[in-house]
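## tool: complex_structure
## caller: assistant
## args:
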Amino acid sequence: METFLQLLIYGLQLGSIYALIALGYTMVYGIIGLINFAHGDFLMVGAFVALFAVTLFGLGFVPALLISMIITGLLGVSIERIAYKPLRKRPRLSALITAIGVSIVLENFPRALPFIGPAPRPFPQMIPMVKFNVLGVSTNSVQLIMIALSVLLMVMLQIIVTKTQIGRKMRAVSLDKDAASLMGINVNSVISVTFFIGASLAAAGGIFYASTYPMIDVYMGIVLGLKAFIAAVLGGIGNIPGAMVGGIIMGIAEIFATSINSDLGYGIGFVILIFILLVRPAGIMGKFTIEKV
Amino acid sequence: MALLDVANVSIQFGGLKAVSDFNLALEQGELVAIIGPNGAGKTTAFNMITGLYKPTTGDIRLNGESLVGLRPNEFTARGIARTFQNIRLFNEMTVLDNLKAALTLQAKYSLREALLRTRKFLKIEDEIEDRAIEILKILRLDAKIDILAKNLPYGEQRRLEIARALATNPRILLLDEPVAGMNPNEIEEIIRLIAEIRESFKLTILLIEHHMNVVMTIADRIKVLDFGQTIAEGAPDEIQNNPKVIEAYLGRRGRK
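## result:
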């Protein structure tokens, strides 16, 4: 029982990181129908921005987190404007291939920079580590703060989407771009906001990940991004609560599988993906739509 | 000067001239109907007047300002709103959210203000809600605010489209077949509603309609399109007896 709770809390922590990243995939897909393969790299950018904010400017955790979220968010907006917007009316495959290209640039450009480079960097410990022991389960301040912050960010996102004007516009644009535009909604700015939110949540996810597994490098976004993508598909791509649930399930499954065998942990996500695609192709919360003929 | 002045507008899709030399001067407060057989180019004309299509040639002026080349939301911001022939509501959103989403001009606050729930944010959100409910009351949809748009009965979906268009605070309202598929009672109600909103919102209305009784009852002026060309224009009784119009609708009588 204690082992179970112990694993559960690790799973929750990893899962909430996957969820934060999966949200960006799902929001961008929901609004422009694009699988943004560069999304995983936003979390790497976020982690590096935070690293420099701390090591070069001596900022604390919260300012570093906020600055990293803002800068990564703006990077997301610029990438959409430069790379994806010109292709919006083109076949989807064009934008998809462009996204892969953007991903390669985002990974290898920093790799070529002298102050970043290919070697892994240690990520600073920004929150004082205090260990607790509750009901025989050992946990620590970092873990609990990370989980709490992830939940906070997800609640904030849910409020934005359901209770504010920008959220209504986002939903309207994702449902019918032309009709939204004819109701006076500026579709371009709504898409920009979506990219901003998605990329900044990924930055937060990257920082939370690096705070737990404190080694970062330019390729850290590949595997993490892939797993978050699976989480988004698992929950039903385009569905925001789905991405949250999918992320948590992925994280917990991975930790439990790892406790049995570490190779199994790596592969479990793909097993889940295959299973979901076979049983419920639209995902847990996705709606299965029948194409009208 | 006319409120809306559409001058010599044509549009071409590949080799097909969908609308040619379309002219229309809408005076403040007028209700003009466009009629014509299927495929005559009526909806295409609407799509140009609302900015969805950019005309190949010609000019569209609102109060003297040319709108050609602007995006649809900029047309809307200047006071042109519309409904759709095949209803295009935000189906997965509630009736209230459909309205609120269209209240874009009223809703001026930043993401930061929304996150911090500033007083300005709360005040604007309240105003949006009040305004949305006010409009829904006029369209008799205020009892349905929490229902998803897709779950409304057909006639109410049509009314919600009108309500949503009104939320953008238009000067000119374009209605694309507002009574299509309705039963006689519903048609009567829509006719009453159109007259009511025309009065209370001081609207200028342009509508496409196949239902002749409706057109003859409410239009001040009728414009007849066929194969992208304007074949007749005038008051309802003139149009009714115009041989060209009868021909377009019924075909030429075979000579014996």
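## assistant note: The interface with chain A takes residues 50-52, 71-73, 75-77, 81-82, 84, 88-93, 97, 100-105, 107, 109, 111, 114-115, 121, 124-125, 128, 164-165, 167-168 of chain B (CB under 8 Å). Chain B has one domain: 4-250. Handing back to user.
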